[in-house]
Amino acid sequence: MPQFSRHSRRGRVMIAIGLSALLLGTSACTRLRTHQGYQVDKLLVDSVQPGIDNRASVEGTLGRPSFVSQFGEQDWYYVSRNMRALAFSNPKPVEQTVLRVRFDPAGNVAAVDRMGLEQVAHISPSGDKTPTLGRHRSLFDEIFGNIGAVGAAGMGGGSAGGPGGGPNGS
After folding, report:
1. pLDDT of 10-29, one tens digit each?
2. Fewer CB atoms inside 10 Å of the end CB: C or N, the chain?
């Protein structure tokens, strides 16, 4: 009889370990959803009207922009992005909204534009190396290439007219 209770206890422990491994395995593959940037409120965005609002009223309604255009302060951008990822994979954008508020020189709203994921450029790099111009040198050439080179800078081999360049060190 004691053998039976020891095996049933071991069986229960094995079942508990198996269930916890199963739960950990399924939770590791869950989709993670994140939000980055501005929280878009459609009602507030629709309330910004060209010709009526100015910088102060837009900041009061929508808040500070995500960023301001670099060439003059004519455009304000509000960027919102929803991302999705599986466990440890790279996150992928699912939805994106870029709200651009353009101002005239007087500071009044000239236009409000919305853009989405259709404006995102997908770039796929070719290869794992960036082609460059110049010499192709190995690691050993880079390390030992200047040993014994005549006139190497900083090694006392400067020109004859400079300090330390003459035959007497003058």
Report:
1. 778 878 787 776 665 555 56
2. N
